[in-house]
């Protein structure tokens, strides 16, 4: 499974993307796993758990609002924190 981090999620995880070998996961269990894998962030960045709590998610390019959605090993999950700008 490919996980792609954007904005504050990228800063919190310290990476743009990572690949995990998961089966039988839901979006919720994946997010819990990721928060545990990246408990601390670089200086000035909030922890990933905090970023996840206010993020939206795409699974294979489609919005995933239900965190109980089952995931497949070949899925791509994007973590999209709120973006600031003008």
Features:
27% helix; globular; 86 residues; alpha+beta
Classify the helix fraction into a percent range: 25-40%
Tell me the total number of β-strands: 5
Shape: globular
Distance between the termini: 33 Å
Low-confidence stretches: none
Strand order of the largest sheet: 2-1-5-3-4
Largest sheet: 5 strands, mixed
Give the helices and strands as they follow along the chain.
Answer: EHEHHEEE
Q: Any idea what the radius of gyration is?
A: 12 Å
Give the helix tally: 3
Structural class call reads: alpha+beta
In what range is the share of β-strand residues? 15-25%
Average the pLDDT over all residues and give the rounded result.
Answer: 93
Can you put this structure into words, describing what you see?
It is a single chain. The chain has helices spanning about 10-15, 25-35, 50-55; strands at about 1-5, 15-20, 55-60, 60-65, 75-80. With about 90 residues, it is of the alpha+beta class. The protein is globular. The relative contact order is 0.29.
Give the helices and strands, then pairings:
Blueprint: E1 2-5, H1 8-13, E2 17-19, H2 27-37, H3 48-53, E3 56-59, E4 62-63, E5 76-80
Parallel strand pairs: 1-5
Antiparallel strand pairs: 1-2, 3-4, 3-5
Summarize the structure.
This protein has 86 residues and is α+β, with helices and mostly antiparallel strands.
